[in-house]
Specification:
By secondary structure, the protein is mainly α. The chain is built from eight helices and no strands.
Amino acid sequence: MPKTKPTPAQAQLHLQLYDLRREAKLRQARDWFMLNYFVDTADEANRLAPPGSLENAYVRMVTSYWDQACALLNYGLLHEELFFETCGEFFHVWERLKPVISTFRQRYRNPHSYAQLEKAAKRYEKWMERRAPGALTTIRQYMQQLRRPPATR
């Protein structure tokens, strides 16, 4: 498949998304999420980030930001190749949500919850496997290492 260049509008939107990621509160939320959000069950997720807590707000900020960004990608407003080449964080967020998403979708009776993030992550997996076979395995192994306390990594 021939590569297409991003349009100026796609490039501008891409830069705007990056700029939003630099907002202080979202940066705090992203930092907390990447260091702490390791759950295997919905109960663990609720213990780690109980409703009404700052941690819950962080989870919602990070996951909704990336779900919205992925919606822009999925609707063709962002250039997929450029997004995949420069925005791997969304995939890490999806990997952390994946163990609990079906429970959350059932609990809140919303089968579409974070569907945009999931759809983009599935395409990213295929894209990565074509571009760098085996890289996703390494990424997932690294993410498992991050689950351990810093002293044991």
